[in-house]
């Protein structure tokens, strides 16, 4: 491994950040995809930035038959290969050799089955009296049983001088009943402030910066409300299909996979009231209030679709029903568009349009705030019949930028208006290097800051809001429309917004 440019934007983000307390991070699912592709690179980035103390240790647990050296070797080989073929999750170029080795020395491995009580006795011995975080990097069927095993073994008992925390991955439940059941089972063995329900969208710098943009500047807040906003659109469009996750996706679908978690987190960031402080409680209280004001969906406010064969970047791609692990008669949705209402004073009457889907024309995650037209149209003739709407777009992925679009006078004797766009690229102002997105979340968890993690009440409310749509899908009362891979999505999505609020096109329509 060679020297590389270290983690610039992470360092920027954590400027002034303290070193982490001594801690053992136990990763269940040490041989899995999440661990090697995202978790270990994030830990490396934290180590690289000097944020991890010498007393930090990682214990990986999995059923793969290997020892400490084998696990380290597998991670090293994976990271090297990923770095050289450009798919490295957390690095640009190869990791720094000395730092990588420093980290590897802190990694050890236990081969075991999650159902084996002996595994937890062994872990107890290894961890001793110190701080520990248990990361469930495993399928959701293991979340409650793992927590229960940890509880039974006394591994979740905190002391004056030690913390014990669990990080729970997604999906958090399949519906309201299962999310509630999971919360209840977790809360039997750990207190709410020991449970860190992760949503990787909240690890994205551009998502965290929404709060900064809204609440650190005086110019936005006065117009961030119903009197000035016409509609808000949230898009998470992907070009990829279901990749190797056909079997998982068949049981999830686009709504469960993206909406009650990621898209609602974006909605909270853009629509919640200003918190009184940046404490976890204050921020999460505001998010919960927003979720409580979110009106449960009506079936007519939901459009679902499934992709058929088409073309992405000039390459033919199969339809969803031809993907591995997918039934040829599947009625699982790969696209969903929603019209939501927030019943509070700030947002009463403002529609929130959300859409997400796979195999669309473009990869784009963004929030756009569409402002109302000027109250008196002085320029009606000059602007032809167009009523100009100013749009502020928070670009989250793959571009990291903020754009505003508005009308200006075209040069020349005629009073003719033209649409212009101004753009702030984060990279132009802040030294930038892609990071994995789990760094901040891991750092915060080790520091005991739950601001960016989801609380039980908000998760349950999210499932309540989407429940009528899920029921409509199950009873086939919401038609499943098809759309060609590489397109804008199903036509029904346009009916949802009407021409008055039309979606920002994913690619320029020809
Ligand atoms: N991968 C990703 O990009 C992302 C994943 N997630 C979430 O992270 C979690 C983990 O995902 P991912 O890493 O992809 O899953 P994987 O299936 O790749 O990893 C899970 C690991 O746990 C092992 N395992 C399964 N059962 C047992 C058992 N009884 N005892 C010991 N080890 C066992 C598996 O072994 P074996 O292979 O033999 O079954 C595998 O090595 C999931 O909840 C997922 O939803 C979230 C965001 C992104
Ligand atoms: O959690 C998930 O998110 C990804 C999209 O995340 P991004 O960070 O790549 O935008 C999605 O592809 C996946 O289906 C879903 O499970």
Automatic annotation (TrEMBL):
Its EC number is 1.1.1.49. It catalyses: D-glucose 6-phosphate + NADP(+) = 6-phospho-D-glucono-1,5-lactone + NADPH + H(+). GO terms for biological process: glucose metabolic process; pentose-phosphate shunt, oxidative branch. One of its GO terms (molecular function) is glucose-6-phosphate dehydrogenase activity. It comes from the Bacteria. Pathway: Carbohydrate degradation; pentose phosphate pathway; D-ribulose 5-phosphate from D-glucose 6-phosphate (oxidative stage): step 1/3. NADP(+) binds at residues 63, 113-114, 170. Keywords: Carbohydrate metabolism, Glucose metabolism, NADP, Oxidoreductase. Residues 484-510 are annotated as: Disordered. It is an enzyme of class 1 (oxidoreductase). Residues 211-502 form the Glucose-6-phosphate dehydrogenase C-terminal domain. The active site is at 262 (proton acceptor). GO terms for cellular component: cytosol. Substrate binds at residues 200, 204, 238, 257, 358. Residues 26-208 form the Glucose-6-phosphate dehydrogenase NAD-binding domain. Pfam families: G6PD_C, G6PD_N. HAMAP family: G6PD (MF_00966). Catalyzes the oxidation of glucose 6-phosphate to 6-phosphogluconolactone. Belongs to the glucose-6-phosphate dehydrogenase family. NCBIfam families: PRK12853.1-3, zwf. This is Glucose-6-phosphate 1-dehydrogenase. The gene is zwf.
